[in-house]
Design a protein that fits this description.
single chain, about 425 residues, Methylamine Dehydrogenase, Chain H, four-stranded antiparallel β-sheet, 6 helices, 31 strands, globular
Length: about 425
Amino acid sequence: MVDPVSTVDSHVYERNAIEGWLQNHKTSPVTGRPLPSLALAPQDHMRRAIEEYKQLQSTLDRVSCARAAQVLDIASVNPHVGLRYQLDRLKEALNLPTAESKAECQEVIAELETVLMTPSSLARSNASMHGCSCRDIEQFACLRALVGHDQGVNAMAALPENRVASGSGDGAVKSWDLASGRCTATFPGHTASVSAMTRLGSDHIVSSSWDFTIRIWSLGLHSLGSFILGDCGCKVHSVTAVSARSVASGSQDGQVRLWDVARQSQLLALDGHDKQVLGVEALSADMIASCSADRTVKLWDIRTKQCLSTLRGHGGSVRATTTLAGGQLASCSSDSSIKAWDLGSGRCLSAFHGHRESVWSVVAIGNGHLASGSLDGTIRLWNLHDNSTTSILDDHNGGVSKVVAVGTNLVSSSLDHTVRVWGSVPISP
């Protein structure tokens, strides 16, 4: 953008582009509504910010360029993948019953407020400086993209024999062979967006959906199909296998439920979260971690049905967790950060900053490293010892919804409709 101007409805455009549009239209290119006036207002503060950034970028070193990038963030020049996603959610909410629509809209508004209040300029600066740090002896590169979903891929699970399963916004579940990049099966069944997936044994996967159901799918050579494990009566956002016989789920009503696989029935419900449960993870056969839009992580004892502790510190919805060595847990949030916790004391040990938008996925990948995926479209690899970013993977064209480790590779799913496979490649010393 060189010469930004705004129309009377406050949308900002490049002058040449909007003038060309207005020669043939009297409507807003964003909303389609008639414009009461075709007058254009120069956005001088934004133009000066752009000019200053370009000048700094051409003359200063990397750290100074990172500071110049702050100007762009403050001026809100760059469009955000995450904001487009939240807009889609608001549109979906219009079709929901009144009470549920209000709750969904309130959640989106809260997350947007978190994005607007997040010091993204600081995050961008930290990200650039971390990106300048020395990397390990290997770096990751995209090996292939798996294409086949018609909508954004929201969920994914690692499977045996170098395979993954994925679920998308159109309700489809697919399995993939990573070596060939071939889709080996497509499973119809869900009637709304697939929100989460987990592996159950060697031949089954479990999926949760906004159609209120949890399904178990057979991947056996002679049996491909599914059955409904349970109906929560509201959107199901997350699912995890606790054992070969039980599955836990988190849903819109703020409950964590435990399900009996053989009997296809609910065993118990855990109440404690004030808002929807966005992630669940089995820490052991008797303990579950849940994270919520109420900005907390809770640890539950399944045997006693008691909440053992509540981890507080995030400034936005907590989207997912992953277990770390030494009795620790990592969580990621819409406040764009990742935090490491000591499970014994409930104390926050460290925080990781670098993503510019909501972090949806985090996974431990061994050797003292984490991988995270964000609505800013990037995957970051983190060194747990010094909290630094060791790699930034940015081949996706949309927000990254899930990252899993499969053997020595990373696999990511994205709102750009693709699944990507990442592998380490040697670099020169």
